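User: Here's a structure from my thesis project, written as structure tokens. My advisor, Dr. K., wants to see whether a designed sequence matches the one we expressed. Can you design one independently, without my sequence as a hint?
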């Protein structure tokens, strides 16, 4: 299957904000492995840095979390829907940028999930398998039909 097209069906983002390049076939319902190939056409690419700034690690991990939830929703016949990162713990990014020409593998493993909230252990590894970023992330996905006013109650 065309994974790029499938990413658009699994993630609530639209191009050009789909940052992931692809994903591995899912073997575990509670985890997903994806990757990003960094090139000069990558969103957030900075010529002066020769890659994508390390702070984008949070979005790479967030989209991989969304991919995990997207698989679950698709298995139930549901479309992807928007979610919000509430926070991260133990965030570590050991690279100033994700280098051009490199492939980075991202893993999001769900440690808790209910109808609205989820927690994930996330890692990003370079081509050598070294962890270059990691975090424990928490996300909120509003219930279907929730309005902007309803969301204001959580602020």
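Assistant: Designed independently from the structure alone:
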């Amino acid at each position: 299957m065309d994974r790029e097209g499938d990413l658009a069906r699994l993630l609530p983002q639209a191009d050009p904000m789909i940052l992931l390049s692809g994903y591995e076939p899912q073997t575990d319902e509670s985890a997903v492995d994806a990757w990003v190939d960094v090139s000069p056409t990558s969103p957030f690419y900075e010529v002066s840095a020769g890659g994508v700034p390390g702070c984008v690690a949070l979005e790479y991990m967030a989209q991989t979390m969304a991919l995990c939830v997207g698989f679950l929703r698709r298995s139930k016949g549901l479309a992807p829907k928007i979610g919000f990162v509430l926070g991260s713990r133990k965030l570590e990014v050991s690279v100033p940028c994700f280098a051009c020409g490199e492939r980075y593998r991202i893993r999001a493993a769900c440690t808790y999930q209910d109808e609205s909230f989820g927690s994930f252990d996330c890692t990003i590894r370079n081509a050598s398998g070294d962890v270059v970023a990691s975090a424990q992330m928490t996300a909120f996905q509003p219930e279907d039909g929730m309005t902007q006013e309803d969301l204001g109650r959580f602020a």
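When you compare it with your expressed construct, this may help: The chain has three helices and eight strands.
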